[in-house]
Amino acid sequence: MIVVTSGKGGVGKTTTSASFAAGLAQRGYRTVVIDFDVGLRNLDLIMGCERRVVYDFINVINNEANLNQALIRDKRVENLYILPASQTRDKDALTKDGVERILNELRQNFEYIVCDSPAGIERGALMALYFADEALVVTNPEVSSVRDSDRILGILSSRSRRAEQGEVSIKEHLVLARYDAERAHRGDMLTVDDVLEILGISLLGVIPESSAVLQSSNAGVPVILEEGSDAGAAYGDLVDRFLGKSLPHRFVTVQKKGLLKRLFGGN
Amino acid sequence: MKNLLNGIFGRVPPGKTTAAVAKERLQIIVTHERGGRHRSPDYLPALKKELLEVVRKYVPVDPSQIKVHLDREGDCEILELNITLPDEEQRLAVR
Asked: What ipTM does this complex have?
């Protein structure tokens, strides 16, 4: 069970959850991605299945529907399922016992359970990380995001089930999103190394600032499925690294522009 | 020399870059906030479990009703133990 979390909103949690889950499924693992953002669901939109939502996570917790009724099977990627959040209930409907029961049931059928955390450090966020074995901490190279990520790391190591039961701690991975190598090079943006030095966790992937992310969200396609896009390729690498491949990090150094490009602009 | 060239060609603004300022500010605030959040020692979960077992020999308390807290005030560490005993009705129901 992997939680995608960050503390701060708008840094790319849902984008990362969608692409990470789709990437695992593409590589043959039965994967379910759960939206924990009760009241403000958005994973369904990013995954492009918003019109197929009938029952949600809370319905299943309250025994108003069973899992098979609530799970939405992705039409593009085999082995990929989505469990949407409730849009109408409040976040108190997420009970620890209820969440645990559903996760245990999902564990029977899935190799990976990806939990898309809401922003903040309230109930929804705490529930999303409580049962986690591993965490993807999504951070932007920007002061407030880095600070919030550090707070979330503190919560992972003190308020998760693993911490409470004195078990081996949650494995934490950094996902540095919206990175602009050129601005970092100019000294206008924290570099990958700066962020790593402050947070002190291992780097799973660097996702470049990319127009493909907005475009794919417009279309309801996880960006990892957009072939030829830089952000999609970065997520592909990230998933492979998560599964144990050792790949060099791309998009972290400035691409030297040729003379013509430098003269005439362009990207 | 590199810095001089960069300076001449205007690639890096004179003095500290904004990223360097950001990094320094973050290191200070993050260290400060980590200090305030006491990382509890490893033995706390085990201690909590054993305490609970002892108490439960005499009173049927729920595992969620025990709170163990370690606080630091300067050099002084305070171990705070909080057990909520069930009221009479619940106790009878358990028996």
From this structure: 0.83
